[in-house]
Design a protein that fits this description.
By secondary structure, this protein is an alpha+beta fold. The protein folds into two domains: 178 residues, Ribonuclease H-like superfamily/Ribonuclease H (Nucleotidyltransferase, domain 5), CATH 3.30.420; 89 residues, no CATH class. The protein contains ten helices and nine strands. The strands form two sheets. Strands 3-2-1-4-5-6 form a six-stranded mixed sheet. Strands 7-8-9 form a three-stranded antiparallel sheet. Strand 2 and strand 3 form a beta hairpin. The structure holds zinc ion. One of its GO terms (cellular component) is cytosol. One of its GO terms (molecular function) is 3'-5' exonuclease activity.
C-alpha cells in the first residue's frame, strides 16, 4: 500500500472496553514535521465512565454529550505508541459504529524506538514509555491529553526518522520491517439512512440513537432528543413528559424545523443534517 499521509493517533477510553473511546488525538506529519494537531472528544456508544479512566484523562460524561465522530484514516500510515491498543480501539469503535474497517498501515512507535535505540539500559519497559521517549527527543507535552500524546508520538517517530536519515516515516517503517498493513473489511451494510447519519455524525450500535441532542425546556430542564430508527424511517424521540402523549413535542418540532435556540449540546451541524434525514426517511 502506498500511504497518502502519515498521522499519529492516540485514544483515551471511557472504561475498560476498547470500543469506548471518549477522546482521540491526531497529529499529521508532512515534509518531516507535524503540520496539524487536533484533539476531539468522542461520545462513546455506551456512556459509562470508569473512575479509574476519569482519573487518567479527566474527561467526564458531560464533556462528551453531543460530541462528534471519527476521523478518516483509510490509506494512511497511522502511528501510535503501543499501537496494539490504539489500533484495537479503532477497530472496535468502527465496528461499534457500524463503519467499515478501512485499509491502512500502522506503525508502533514503541517498536520503532526499541529497534532504533536498542537496550535502553536495565530499566525494562520504563525507558520506552511515551514520557521517557518524549523527554529523550526534547518534546514537552501534557501526558494523557489525547492530542498531546499523539503529538509526542509523532515527534518521536520524526526524531527516529531524522537520526536514521530516512526520507520519510513510511520508508523508515518499511526499511525496518515494522509497518503493518491492515486490510480493510467490508461494510456491515448499514441501511441508507443510517449510513447518511453516520457520515454526518456517528453514534453507534444498531439500537443506539443515530443522533443525539440535548435541548433546554421552557423551565430550564434539559431533555434528550434522539434520532432513532422507527418502522417508517428515522424519527425523533424526546425524553420530556409531553412526548409521552404526543410524539411531536415542542422540542422535536423545533429541532425538525432546524431551530437551535434551545440546543444545549454542541452539535448545531447535526440539526442542519436532521432536515435531510427526516425528509428522506
Ligand atoms: Zn420534548
Amino acid at each position: 500500500m502506498t500511504c497518502s499521509r502519515t498521522l499519529a493517533i492516540d485514544f483515551e477510553t471511557a472504561n475498560e472496553r476498547r470500543d469506548s473511546p471518549c477522546a482521540v488525538g491526531l497529529a499529521w506529519i508532512e515534509g518531516g514535521r507535524v503540520v496539524r494537531r487536533e484533539s476531539r472528544l468522542i461520545r462513546p456508544a455506551e456512556m459509562r465512565f470508569a473512575p479509574g479512566n476519569i482519573r487518567v484523562h479527566g474527561i467526564r460524561p458531560r464533556d462528551v454529550a453531543g460530541a462528534p465522530s471519527f476521523p478518516e484514516i483509510a490509506g494512511s500510515l497511522v502511528l501510535a505508541h503501543n499501537a496494539s491498543f490504539d489500533v484495537g480501539v479503532l477497530a472496535a469503535t468502527l465496528q461499534a459504529y457500524g463503519l467499515p474497517q478501512p485499509a491502512y498501515t500502522s506503525l508502533c512507535t514503541v517498536q520503532l524506538a526499541r529497534r532504533h535505540w536498542p537496550g535502553e539500559g536495565g530499566q525494562g519497559q520504563g525507558s520506552y514509555r511515551l514520557s521517557s521517549l518524549a523527554a529523550r527527543v526534547g518534546v514537552t507535552f501534557r501526558h494523557h491529553d489525547a492530542g498531546e500524546d499523539a503529538y509526542a508520538c509523532a515527534e518521536i517517530a520524526l526524531a527516529v526518522m531524522r537520526e536514521a536519515g530516512a526520507p520519510d516515516i513510511a520508508s523508515l517503517a518499511r526499511r525496518l520491517g515494522l509497518a503493518r498493513e491492515r486490510a480493510g473489511e467490508g461494510v456491515r451494510a448499514p441501511d441508507g439512512i443510517a449510513a447518511r447519519a453516520l457520515r454526518g455524525v456517528a453514534p453507534s450500535r444498531t439500537r443506539a440513537p443515530l443522533l443525539h441532542f440535548v435541548v433546554r425546556g421552557s423551565t430550564g430542564t434539559p431533555y434528550d432528543v434522539r434520532l432513532v430508527e422507527g418502522r417508517g424511517g428515522p424519527r425523533l424521540r424526546c425524553s420530556c413528559a409531553g412526548a409521552r402523549f404526543r410524539p411531536d413535542c415542542r422540542h422535536v418540532r423545533a429541532l425538525a424545523n432546524g431551530e437551535i435556540d434551545a440546543l444545549l449540546s454542541d452539535n448545531p451541524g447535526d440539526v442542519a443534517a436532521l432536515a435531510e434525514l427526516l425528509r428522506v426517511g
